[in-house]
Please model this.
Amino acid sequence: MIIGKKTLRIYLGMFLICLFAFTTGLHPVLFGGLNNAILVLLFGILLVWNQRTAFLRDNLSIWALFLVVIMLLDNKDNQRFGTILVYNTLAYMLAWLFYIFTLRDNRWHKPFLKLCMLFGLFHAVATWFFKIVPGLYSTTVVPLLGTWGSSALREFQNGWAPGIAPTYSTNAIYIAIGFCTAVSLLMNESRMRRYIPVLICISALLLTGKRSQLIVSVFAFLLMYYLYNSDKKTTRIFKLCGIAIISLVIFDIASQFVPELANFINRFRQTAEMGDVTLGRAARFAESMQIFLSNPILGIGWNGSSYYFAQSTGIFINVHNIYIQLLCETGIIGAVLYFTFFIYNYFIAWRMLKRVKNSGFTTYEKAGICAAFMIETFTLLYGVTGNPIYDFQTLFPYVASCGIITYYYRNMNENKCIEELPSVH
Model:
Protein backbone atom coordinates (compact mmCIF):
# COMPACT_ATOMS: atom_id res chain seq x y z
CA MET A 1 0.00 0.00 0.00
CA ILE A 2 1.33 3.42 -0.99
CA ILE A 3 1.10 6.05 1.76
CA GLY A 4 0.49 9.60 0.62
CA LYS A 5 2.63 12.52 1.73
CA LYS A 6 -0.13 14.02 3.87
CA THR A 7 -0.90 10.68 5.56
CA LEU A 8 2.81 10.23 6.25
CA ARG A 9 2.93 13.71 7.81
CA ILE A 10 -0.06 12.83 9.97
CA TYR A 11 1.58 9.62 11.23
CA LEU A 12 4.82 11.48 11.93
CA GLY A 13 2.95 14.30 13.64
CA MET A 14 0.97 11.86 15.77
CA PHE A 15 4.13 10.09 16.85
CA LEU A 16 5.85 13.37 17.80
CA ILE A 17 2.81 14.59 19.73
CA CYS A 18 2.37 11.29 21.62
CA LEU A 19 6.11 11.17 22.30
CA PHE A 20 5.86 14.67 23.74
CA ALA A 21 2.81 13.81 25.88
CA PHE A 22 4.01 10.46 27.24
CA THR A 23 7.61 11.35 28.10
CA THR A 24 7.32 14.54 30.18
CA GLY A 25 10.24 13.71 32.48
CA LEU A 26 12.50 12.93 29.54
CA HIS A 27 11.91 16.15 27.56
CA PRO A 28 15.41 17.59 28.17
CA VAL A 29 16.92 14.38 26.74
CA LEU A 30 14.46 13.90 23.86
CA PHE A 31 13.61 17.45 22.82
CA GLY A 32 16.42 19.54 24.22
CA GLY A 33 14.19 22.31 25.53
CA LEU A 34 12.52 25.34 23.97
CA ASN A 35 13.93 25.27 20.44
CA ASN A 36 12.55 21.87 19.61
CA ALA A 37 9.21 22.74 21.22
CA ILE A 38 8.97 25.61 18.73
CA LEU A 39 9.74 23.22 15.87
CA VAL A 40 7.01 20.81 17.00
CA LEU A 41 4.51 23.66 17.18
CA LEU A 42 5.47 24.92 13.71
CA PHE A 43 5.09 21.38 12.38
CA GLY A 44 1.57 21.28 13.77
CA ILE A 45 0.69 24.63 12.20
CA LEU A 46 1.98 23.33 8.85
CA LEU A 47 -0.40 20.37 9.06
CA VAL A 48 -3.50 22.54 9.38
CA TRP A 49 -2.46 25.50 7.22
CA ASN A 50 -3.97 24.14 4.01
CA GLN A 51 -7.36 23.79 5.75
CA ARG A 52 -7.27 27.08 7.65
CA THR A 53 -10.43 28.39 5.97
CA ALA A 54 -12.45 25.35 7.05
CA PHE A 55 -11.13 25.67 10.59
CA LEU A 56 -12.18 29.30 10.83
CA ARG A 57 -15.73 28.33 9.81
CA ASP A 58 -15.91 25.70 12.57
CA ASN A 59 -17.36 27.03 15.83
CA LEU A 60 -15.60 24.40 17.95
CA SER A 61 -12.22 25.32 16.43
CA ILE A 62 -12.88 28.97 17.28
CA TRP A 63 -13.94 27.89 20.78
CA ALA A 64 -10.59 26.13 21.21
CA LEU A 65 -8.79 29.29 20.09
CA PHE A 66 -10.65 31.28 22.77
CA LEU A 67 -9.46 28.77 25.40
CA VAL A 68 -5.89 29.32 24.23
CA VAL A 69 -6.34 33.10 24.36
CA ILE A 70 -7.55 32.85 27.97
CA MET A 71 -4.37 31.02 28.84
CA LEU A 72 -2.18 33.55 27.01
CA LEU A 73 -3.78 36.77 28.25
CA ASP A 74 -2.34 36.69 31.78
CA ASN A 75 0.06 33.76 31.89
CA LYS A 76 2.20 33.88 35.02
CA ASP A 77 4.76 31.56 33.43
CA ASN A 78 5.31 34.16 30.73
CA GLN A 79 5.77 36.87 33.35
CA ARG A 80 8.29 34.70 35.14
CA PHE A 81 10.44 34.07 32.06
CA GLY A 82 9.84 37.44 30.43
CA THR A 83 8.69 36.08 27.07
CA ILE A 84 5.59 34.53 25.55
CA LEU A 85 7.61 31.81 23.84
CA VAL A 86 8.06 29.62 26.90
CA TYR A 87 7.95 25.85 26.95
CA ASN A 88 4.61 25.38 28.76
CA THR A 89 2.85 27.98 26.63
CA LEU A 90 3.95 26.27 23.42
CA ALA A 91 2.79 22.93 24.77
CA TYR A 92 -0.69 24.27 25.60
CA MET A 93 -0.99 25.81 22.15
CA LEU A 94 0.07 22.53 20.54
CA ALA A 95 -2.52 20.62 22.61
CA TRP A 96 -5.43 22.71 21.33
CA LEU A 97 -4.04 22.55 17.81
CA PHE A 98 -4.05 18.78 18.25
CA TYR A 99 -7.72 19.00 19.21
CA ILE A 100 -8.45 20.71 15.90
CA PHE A 101 -6.57 17.94 14.04
CA THR A 102 -8.67 15.16 15.52
CA LEU A 103 -11.85 17.21 15.17
CA ARG A 104 -11.44 17.61 11.43
CA ASP A 105 -9.53 14.55 10.14
CA ASN A 106 -10.20 10.93 11.15
CA ARG A 107 -6.82 9.80 9.84
CA TRP A 108 -5.44 10.90 13.23
CA HIS A 109 -7.71 8.55 15.17
CA LYS A 110 -6.34 5.06 14.55
CA PRO A 111 -2.66 5.94 15.09
CA PHE A 112 -3.67 7.85 18.23
CA LEU A 113 -5.40 4.74 19.63
CA LYS A 114 -2.45 2.49 18.83
CA LEU A 115 0.21 4.88 20.10
CA CYS A 116 -1.63 5.53 23.39
CA MET A 117 -1.73 1.80 24.02
CA LEU A 118 1.90 1.29 22.99
CA PHE A 119 3.22 4.13 25.16
CA GLY A 120 1.05 2.98 28.08
CA LEU A 121 2.37 -0.57 27.66
CA PHE A 122 5.92 0.74 27.48
CA HIS A 123 5.56 2.43 30.86
CA ALA A 124 3.72 -0.58 32.33
CA VAL A 125 6.48 -2.98 31.22
CA ALA A 126 9.13 -0.57 32.55
CA THR A 127 7.31 -0.50 35.90
CA TRP A 128 7.40 -4.28 36.12
CA PHE A 129 11.01 -4.44 34.89
CA PHE A 130 12.35 -2.21 37.65
CA LYS A 131 10.21 -4.06 40.16
CA ILE A 132 11.97 -7.27 39.17
CA VAL A 133 15.45 -5.70 38.70
CA PRO A 134 15.51 -2.75 41.16
CA GLY A 135 19.28 -2.45 41.14
CA LEU A 136 19.29 -0.94 37.64
CA TYR A 137 16.96 1.95 38.45
CA SER A 138 19.49 4.35 39.97
CA THR A 139 22.06 3.80 37.20
CA THR A 140 19.76 3.86 34.14
CA VAL A 141 16.63 5.94 34.83
CA VAL A 142 17.71 8.53 37.40
CA PRO A 143 20.39 10.15 35.15
CA LEU A 144 17.85 10.43 32.30
CA LEU A 145 15.36 12.35 34.46
CA GLY A 146 17.77 15.19 35.25
CA THR A 147 16.36 17.45 37.99
CA TRP A 148 13.51 14.97 38.55
CA GLY A 149 15.94 12.14 39.23
CA SER A 150 16.42 12.65 42.98
CA SER A 151 12.69 12.86 43.78
CA ALA A 152 11.92 9.83 41.57
CA LEU A 153 14.65 7.87 43.35
CA ARG A 154 13.14 8.73 46.75
CA GLU A 155 9.74 7.50 45.59
CA PHE A 156 11.32 4.32 44.24
CA GLN A 157 13.14 3.69 47.52
CA ASN A 158 9.90 4.25 49.47
CA GLY A 159 8.26 1.37 47.62
CA TRP A 160 6.37 3.31 44.96
CA ALA A 161 6.87 2.79 41.22
CA PRO A 162 7.67 5.91 39.16
CA GLY A 163 8.96 3.78 36.26
CA ILE A 164 10.53 5.98 33.59
CA ALA A 165 8.53 9.02 34.70
CA PRO A 166 9.32 11.98 36.98
CA THR A 167 6.80 10.85 39.63
CA TYR A 168 4.81 7.73 40.39
CA SER A 169 1.65 9.78 39.84
CA THR A 170 2.72 10.64 36.28
CA ASN A 171 3.63 7.01 35.65
CA ALA A 172 0.17 5.93 36.84
CA ILE A 173 -1.46 8.37 34.40
CA TYR A 174 0.58 6.98 31.48
CA ILE A 175 -0.48 3.45 32.38
CA ALA A 176 -4.12 4.46 32.97
CA ILE A 177 -4.34 5.94 29.46
CA GLY A 178 -2.82 2.73 28.10
CA PHE A 179 -5.40 0.71 30.03
CA CYS A 180 -8.26 2.81 28.60
CA THR A 181 -7.19 2.08 25.03
CA ALA A 182 -6.30 -1.58 25.65
CA VAL A 183 -9.60 -2.46 27.33
CA SER A 184 -11.55 -0.61 24.62
CA LEU A 185 -9.89 -2.72 21.93
CA LEU A 186 -10.69 -5.84 23.98
CA MET A 187 -14.35 -4.81 24.20
CA ASN A 188 -14.61 -4.65 20.42
CA GLU A 189 -12.26 -7.46 19.41
CA SER A 190 -12.36 -10.24 22.00
CA ARG A 191 -9.23 -12.12 21.02
CA MET A 192 -6.82 -13.74 23.45
CA ARG A 193 -3.99 -11.38 22.50
CA ARG A 194 -6.14 -8.40 23.53
CA TYR A 195 -6.22 -9.60 27.14
CA ILE A 196 -2.45 -9.37 27.59
CA PRO A 197 -2.11 -5.53 27.35
CA VAL A 198 -5.08 -5.10 29.72
CA LEU A 199 -3.55 -7.40 32.35
CA ILE A 200 -0.11 -5.81 32.05
CA CYS A 201 -1.53 -2.28 32.44
CA ILE A 202 -3.87 -2.99 35.36
CA SER A 203 -1.20 -4.94 37.28
CA ALA A 204 1.40 -2.20 36.70
CA LEU A 205 -1.15 0.41 37.79
CA LEU A 206 -1.53 -1.46 41.08
CA LEU A 207 2.26 -1.50 41.50
CA THR A 208 2.47 2.30 41.25
CA GLY A 209 0.57 2.65 44.53
CA LYS A 210 -1.64 5.47 43.19
CA ARG A 211 -5.19 5.04 44.40
CA SER A 212 -7.01 7.82 42.56
CA GLN A 213 -5.74 6.80 39.11
CA LEU A 214 -6.70 3.17 39.73
CA ILE A 215 -10.16 3.94 41.11
CA VAL A 216 -10.99 6.44 38.37
CA SER A 217 -9.72 4.08 35.64
CA VAL A 218 -11.84 1.19 36.93
CA PHE A 219 -14.89 3.44 37.30
CA ALA A 220 -14.41 4.77 33.75
CA PHE A 221 -14.30 1.20 32.45
CA LEU A 222 -17.42 0.10 34.36
CA LEU A 223 -19.35 3.15 33.17
CA MET A 224 -18.18 2.61 29.58
CA TYR A 225 -19.18 -1.05 29.74
CA TYR A 226 -22.63 -0.19 31.14
CA LEU A 227 -23.42 2.44 28.52
CA TYR A 228 -21.87 0.53 25.62
CA ASN A 229 -24.11 -2.46 26.34
CA SER A 230 -27.27 -0.38 26.76
CA ASP A 231 -29.09 -2.82 24.48
CA LYS A 232 -28.64 -5.56 27.13
CA LYS A 233 -30.25 -3.91 30.12
CA THR A 234 -30.62 -7.07 32.23
CA THR A 235 -27.40 -8.99 31.57
CA ARG A 236 -25.05 -6.02 31.87
CA ILE A 237 -25.84 -5.56 35.58
CA PHE A 238 -25.07 -9.20 36.36
CA LYS A 239 -21.88 -9.07 34.29
CA LEU A 240 -20.71 -5.95 36.10
CA CYS A 241 -21.36 -7.56 39.49
CA GLY A 242 -19.50 -10.68 38.36
CA ILE A 243 -16.53 -8.61 37.15
CA ALA A 244 -16.44 -6.72 40.46
CA ILE A 245 -16.57 -9.90 42.60
CA ILE A 246 -13.91 -11.73 40.56
CA SER A 247 -11.65 -8.66 40.63
CA LEU A 248 -11.93 -8.38 44.42
CA VAL A 249 -11.11 -12.08 44.91
CA ILE A 250 -8.07 -11.87 42.60
CA PHE A 251 -6.89 -8.69 44.29
CA ASP A 252 -7.23 -10.23 47.77
CA ILE A 253 -5.25 -13.34 46.76
CA ALA A 254 -2.56 -11.32 44.98
CA SER A 255 -2.10 -9.00 47.98
CA GLN A 256 -0.90 -12.01 50.00
CA PHE A 257 2.08 -12.42 47.67
CA VAL A 258 2.79 -8.88 46.45
CA PRO A 259 3.72 -6.40 49.24
CA GLU A 260 2.86 -3.38 47.09
CA LEU A 261 -0.78 -4.46 46.93
CA ALA A 262 -0.93 -4.84 50.70
CA ASN A 263 0.56 -1.34 51.04
CA PHE A 264 -2.07 -0.11 48.60
CA ILE A 265 -4.85 -1.35 50.92
CA ASN A 266 -3.10 0.05 53.98
CA ARG A 267 -3.05 3.53 52.43
CA PHE A 268 -6.85 3.43 52.15
CA ARG A 269 -7.07 2.37 55.77
CA GLN A 270 -4.74 5.16 56.90
CA THR A 271 -6.72 7.76 54.96
CA ALA A 272 -9.97 6.59 56.57
CA GLU A 273 -8.39 6.82 60.03
CA MET A 274 -7.21 10.36 59.29
CA GLY A 275 -10.77 11.37 58.39
CA ASP A 276 -9.63 13.56 55.47
CA VAL A 277 -10.06 11.99 52.03
CA THR A 278 -8.54 15.11 50.43
CA LEU A 279 -5.19 14.42 52.18
CA GLY A 280 -4.89 17.98 53.43
CA ARG A 281 -6.02 19.62 50.19
CA ALA A 282 -9.27 20.96 51.66
CA ALA A 283 -7.47 23.96 53.15
CA ARG A 284 -5.90 24.69 49.76
CA PHE A 285 -9.32 24.44 48.10
CA ALA A 286 -10.79 26.92 50.60
CA GLU A 287 -7.92 29.36 50.15
CA SER A 288 -8.24 29.17 46.36
CA MET A 289 -11.97 29.94 46.59
CA GLN A 290 -11.14 33.01 48.66
CA ILE A 291 -8.74 34.13 45.93
CA PHE A 292 -11.54 33.65 43.37
CA LEU A 293 -13.97 35.72 45.44
CA SER A 294 -11.38 38.49 45.55
CA ASN A 295 -10.85 38.33 41.75
CA PRO A 296 -14.19 36.98 40.45
CA ILE A 297 -14.24 38.29 36.86
CA LEU A 298 -10.78 37.60 35.37
CA GLY A 299 -9.01 35.69 38.17
CA ILE A 300 -5.30 36.01 38.99
CA GLY A 301 -3.90 34.63 35.74
CA TRP A 302 -3.06 31.21 34.32
CA ASN A 303 -0.91 29.19 36.78
CA GLY A 304 -1.18 32.10 39.20
CA SER A 305 -2.20 29.80 42.07
CA SER A 306 1.15 27.96 42.00
CA TYR A 307 2.97 31.28 42.41
CA TYR A 308 0.57 32.32 45.17
CA PHE A 309 1.20 29.15 47.18
CA ALA A 310 4.94 29.40 46.54
CA GLN A 311 4.98 32.63 48.58
CA SER A 312 3.89 30.76 51.72
CA THR A 313 5.32 27.25 51.12
CA GLY A 314 8.37 27.94 48.97
CA ILE A 315 7.14 25.27 46.53
CA PHE A 316 5.26 25.75 43.26
CA ILE A 317 2.17 23.60 43.79
CA ASN A 318 -1.21 23.48 42.07
CA VAL A 319 -4.64 23.52 43.69
CA HIS A 320 -5.10 19.83 42.78
CA ASN A 321 -8.64 20.53 41.61
CA ILE A 322 -8.96 21.85 38.07
CA TYR A 323 -12.44 23.30 38.64
CA ILE A 324 -11.44 25.43 41.61
CA GLN A 325 -8.12 26.29 39.97
CA LEU A 326 -9.81 27.52 36.78
CA LEU A 327 -12.17 29.68 38.85
CA CYS A 328 -9.24 31.06 40.81
CA GLU A 329 -7.01 31.76 37.80
CA THR A 330 -9.40 32.64 34.95
CA GLY A 331 -12.39 34.02 36.87
CA ILE A 332 -16.01 33.57 35.88
CA ILE A 333 -15.41 34.40 32.21
CA GLY A 334 -12.65 31.85 31.63
CA ALA A 335 -14.15 29.16 33.89
CA VAL A 336 -17.52 29.31 32.12
CA LEU A 337 -15.84 28.80 28.73
CA TYR A 338 -13.83 25.84 30.03
CA PHE A 339 -16.69 24.27 32.02
CA THR A 340 -19.05 24.58 29.05
CA PHE A 341 -16.44 22.86 26.88
CA PHE A 342 -16.20 20.00 29.42
CA ILE A 343 -19.97 19.58 29.70
CA TYR A 344 -20.72 19.84 25.98
CA ASN A 345 -18.12 17.26 25.00
CA TYR A 346 -19.06 14.83 27.75
CA PHE A 347 -22.74 15.10 26.83
CA ILE A 348 -21.90 14.12 23.27
CA ALA A 349 -19.63 11.30 24.45
CA TRP A 350 -22.37 9.90 26.70
CA ARG A 351 -24.98 9.91 23.90
CA MET A 352 -22.54 8.50 21.35
CA LEU A 353 -21.46 5.58 23.52
CA LYS A 354 -25.04 4.39 23.99
CA ARG A 355 -25.56 4.17 20.23
CA VAL A 356 -22.22 3.26 18.71
CA LYS A 357 -22.32 -0.52 19.33
CA ASN A 358 -25.02 -1.13 16.71
CA SER A 359 -23.74 1.50 14.28
CA GLY A 360 -21.93 0.89 11.04
CA PHE A 361 -18.54 1.96 12.34
CA THR A 362 -15.49 -0.30 12.05
CA THR A 363 -13.95 -2.15 15.00
CA TYR A 364 -11.21 0.44 15.42
CA GLU A 365 -13.70 3.32 15.18
CA LYS A 366 -15.87 1.77 17.91
CA ALA A 367 -12.80 1.06 20.04
CA GLY A 368 -11.64 4.65 19.53
CA ILE A 369 -14.99 6.03 20.71
CA CYS A 370 -14.94 3.73 23.77
CA ALA A 371 -11.37 4.74 24.62
CA ALA A 372 -12.16 8.43 24.10
CA PHE A 373 -15.14 8.17 26.46
CA MET A 374 -12.99 6.48 29.12
CA ILE A 375 -10.24 9.10 28.77
CA GLU A 376 -12.79 11.93 29.05
CA THR A 377 -14.31 10.29 32.13
CA PHE A 378 -10.86 9.73 33.64
CA THR A 379 -9.80 13.35 33.06
CA LEU A 380 -12.94 14.98 34.43
CA LEU A 381 -13.07 12.76 37.55
CA TYR A 382 -9.35 12.89 38.21
CA GLY A 383 -9.66 16.67 37.94
CA VAL A 384 -11.31 16.69 41.39
CA THR A 385 -7.99 15.76 43.05
CA GLY A 386 -5.43 16.30 40.26
CA ASN A 387 -4.24 18.68 37.53
CA PRO A 388 -5.14 16.96 34.22
CA ILE A 389 -5.76 20.18 32.26
CA TYR A 390 -2.40 21.55 33.39
CA ASP A 391 -0.44 18.30 32.88
CA PHE A 392 0.54 17.40 29.30
CA GLN A 393 0.20 13.66 29.84
CA THR A 394 -3.56 14.05 30.40
CA LEU A 395 -4.29 17.23 28.45
CA PHE A 396 -3.21 15.83 25.07
CA PRO A 397 -5.20 12.56 25.32
CA TYR A 398 -8.20 14.48 26.67
CA VAL A 399 -8.44 17.05 23.87
CA ALA A 400 -7.83 14.31 21.28
CA SER A 401 -10.66 12.27 22.80
CA CYS A 402 -13.01 15.25 22.60
CA GLY A 403 -12.10 15.77 18.95
CA ILE A 404 -12.53 12.08 18.06
CA ILE A 405 -16.00 11.74 19.57
CA THR A 406 -17.19 15.05 18.10
CA TYR A 407 -16.00 13.95 14.65
CA TYR A 408 -18.06 10.75 14.76
CA TYR A 409 -21.00 12.50 16.39
CA ARG A 410 -21.14 14.87 13.47
CA ASN A 411 -20.79 11.97 11.05
CA MET A 412 -23.73 10.13 12.61
CA ASN A 413 -25.81 13.29 12.70
CA GLU A 414 -25.19 14.05 9.07
CA ASN A 415 -26.10 10.50 8.07
CA LYS A 416 -29.26 10.47 10.22
CA CYS A 417 -28.05 7.49 12.22
CA ILE A 418 -29.21 9.02 15.50
CA GLU A 419 -31.87 11.51 16.40
CA GLU A 420 -31.02 15.15 15.95
CA LEU A 421 -29.01 16.55 18.84
CA PRO A 422 -28.10 20.19 19.49
CA SER A 423 -24.87 20.96 17.64
CA VAL A 424 -22.52 23.91 17.46
CA HIS A 425 -21.27 22.80 14.04
